[in-house]
Amino acid sequence: MVRLGFIIGFIALLGALLSGLAAYRVHDQELALDRIALARAIDVHASLVQDRLTERELLARVASGLFRAPSVIKPNMLEPLRSAIYAFKTDFVVAGWVARLKPNELLPAEDAIASAGFPNPQIRTYDDKPIDLAKVTQPIDVLMDLEPRSNETKALPGRSYEQDQVRSAMLTRARVEKRSVASDPVQLLRGGGPIGIIVAAPVIPEGATEPAGFVTFSYELASLMLTNDDMSLFSVALKDPRREGGELVANDQGVVSSRMTAADGPAPSATRTVSFGGRDWHLGYYAKTNSARRAEQTAIIVAAIGFAITAMVCGLFGYVAYNNLRLSREIQVRIGFERRLTAVIDELNHRVKNILAVIQSIVTRTLRHGSDIDVARELLIGRIHAMSNVVSLLSESQWQGVKLKGLFEARAIPHADRIAVTGPDIAVSARAAQSLSLLFFELASHSDEGLSLVGKHPHITANWTVTGEGTDEVFHFRWEEFNTSEATRRPDSDFGLILLDRVAPEALGGTAKRYFTDASYVYELTAPMETVVDMSERDRTDKISAPVRPVR
Question: Are 532 and 476 in contact (CB under 8 A)?
Answer without folding.
Answer: no
